[in-house]
Structure prediction request, 138 residues.
Amino acid sequence: MQASLRLFLSDRTDRHAGCERLSDVLNGPLAFVPAVDPNGKIVFFHKKSVMAVSVSAEEELSSEPSPEELASDQVSRAIVEVLLEDGSSFRGTIVYLMPEAQRRLQDFLNTSDRFLVLKERAVSHLINKARITRVSPL
Prediction:
């Protein structure tokens, strides 16, 4: 089931410089997140129930340089197809910065973040790792 919700984002976060991103909320410690439904009512959704959220890539980017920009020679990129448990799939690029001895895609997929960011042109898909059945490099 697809739902359109508006979430609350802060103008600052402890995770990085700049404004809070959707990935900060989804990867944060709270299980239930407040949002506004299309009727203007407050609802609380459980993050585990979310398969994927798609937002403008611009909204997921910070005004501050990302770690990837600061360490561009150490950044890893993987073009992948992600298959979810409901049969839907996404294709795009995963960009990540990991220690030198842990730069395999497998290492990144096994980090503690609950959601991964998959970039597809001007869209960022935030995909719940617990709902992924397969990631295939292309």
Helices lie at 22-27, 57-60, 67-70, 105-109. The radius of gyration is 15 Å. Residues 6-50 form one domain. The mean pLDDT is 87.
